[in-house]
Amino acid sequence: MCAHRLSPASTFQVVVIADGQVTMGSMVLKPNARKTRRIGDSAIGAVAGATADAFTLFERLENKLEEHSGQLTRAAVELAKMWRMDKYLRRLDASLVVADRTQSLQITGNGDVVEPYDGILSIGSGSPFAQAAARALMDVPGLDAATVARRAMSIAADSCVYSNSSLRMLRVDAEGTIFETEPGPLADLSDVFGAAGIAHKEPEGAGSGPLL
Fold this sequence. Notes:
By secondary structure, the protein is α+β, with helices and mostly antiparallel strands. It has five helices and twelve strands. Strands 10-1-2-11-12 form a five-stranded antiparallel beta sheet, covered by helices on one side. It has a five-stranded antiparallel beta sheet with strand order 5-6-7-8-9. A two-stranded antiparallel ribbon has the order 3-4. Strand 7 and strand 8 (104-107) form a beta hairpin.
């Protein structure tokens, strides 16, 4: 998923984060795959779908970025056109989210290039859980994009059997510098609310009572 917003220090921050699970049917093939990637010198991205198809698309996008002097929107539109019209490329089974220091985009094989209205994009099997969680956390004051994305992915990993908590994150700051981290899962909501300076209290009776 991708999230961008102002940090508590009023600096713009863009984050792309992904889990590491690769699944074939009911079997987990790999728990720590790398689904995030730098694209050229100024952009980052994440992928969902077939691995070989995804990296083919990343390479094409990197070429388009070079052709268009790092203009991400133009490169994404050109890739989407090629993806839809090319007899070979249109068979590729993958979705991409890409971002630079000013914007984030989702690219699909249907020719869509989507810019989020709220700063959040998500793809893959855990997408509905991560997106809903991130939108809720965006309303919590004091949380930066990295904390929102990390907690949202942790919730998705708890909810989706095709996702896990082996996370990799790429971050772009306001100057365009790219950072890579491997954040561990957040333990519970108290970590998130504590980062925002908000007291979090479990409901009375939580953890007790009859088991179903």
